[in-house]
Amino acid sequence: MSKHTDRILVTGGAGFIGSALVWALNKRGLTDIIITDFLGRDEKWRNLVGLQFLDFIDARQFRNRLSQHSETFGTFDYVFHLGACSSTTETDAAYLLDNNYNVTKEMAAWALAQKARFIYASSAATYGDGAKSMSDETDGQIFRPLNMYAYSKHLFDLHALRQGWLDRIIGLKYFNVFGPNEDHKGDMCSLVHKAYREIRRSGKISLFKSHRPEYSHGEQKRDFLYVKDAVEMTLHLAFNAKTRGGIYNVGSGEANTWNDLATAVFHALGKAPIIEYVDMPELIREKYQYYTQADISKLRAAAYDCPITPLKGAVHDYVQNYLTVDSRLGE
């Protein structure tokens, strides 16, 4: 367990998982936290309202000042690098390479130089279609990501491997995380968030048809993980002194169908399920993951023994305690 005197940096700390992480740190009595992020014209700022932290620094300013004077912000005990472009449909390759790859290289080198514990967000998207493996023990060089977002994340995993950093840093391959504080993500919001809005508007949920014969419509499967569990796993790996460095899957360890998820949203609202199936856009049809399931045996071997919230219970908590009352974590 971390000392209460630790100094902590959270990049992307106003974002979805980042703000949830700060909330979880606050629950542990930790408030000596510096947050960096981009605050645009959306409502992401609301994620900060219920949190306790020492300072907020614009991510561009942070990067520029750090490049000029590496000691300008002092030293940190923990650096959680969660800031990135998380859009799986972003097509600006140069932007993704700079924001997700170059910045992560800079942050890791800086953190290691000051002997900070460096924990960064990778992604389950780096596994591609999963045909080669979805194990965090597999040599990452065999993976073939399906989109530029995933490739930008994959590149840093490979860079860390080549540099010999993976015994000193922790990379987290987050699977399909959902929950409070994702409102600002627009099209990248989870199906739970989108489904809640759609049910309130039309009384039904639209799911993508399957374009592979071995999967019925809505029976494509994902490893869905509640954000409260995701941050507990993250902090366990960061604060457990016995945790060895490397890549870790952060997921539930179970695969559930989109139909399961949609039905859980209806039940959380006390409504009978009405689901219609629509054609998947051709833009993503060939890059779509039909099945993901995290192998979390490495996480469990690292002494993470907390129960993981079942899908139905997680959806109910999210819908009833956050979406229906328009609330964020900590409010």
Characterization of the model:
With about 325 residues, this protein is α/β, with parallel strands linked by helices. The chain has a domain at about 10-180 and about 225-250 and about 295-310: NAD(P)-binding Rossmann-like Domain (Rossmann fold, 3-Layer(aba) Sandwich). Helices cover about 35% and strands about 15% of the residues. The chain contains 10 helices and 13 strands. The strands form 4 sheets. The protein has a 7-stranded parallel β-sheet with strand order 3-2-1-4-5-6-11, sandwiched between helices. Helix 4 links the parallel strand 5 (about 115-120) and strand 6. The radius of gyration is 19 Å and the shape is globular. It starts with 7 loop residues before the first strand and ends in an 8-residue tail after the last helix.
Task: Explain the layout of strands and helices.
Elements: E1 8-11, H1 16-27, E2 33-37, E3 55-58, H2 59-68, E4 78-81, H3 93-113, E5 117-121, H4 148-163, E6 169-174, E7 176-178, H5 191-202, E8 205-208, E9 221-222, E10 224-226, H6 227-239, E11 246-250, E12 256-257, H7 258-268, E13 275-278, H8 282-285, H9 297-301, H10 311-323
Parallel strand pairs: 1-2, 1-4, 2-3, 4-5, 5-6, 6-11, 7-10, 8-13
Antiparallel strand pairs: 9-12
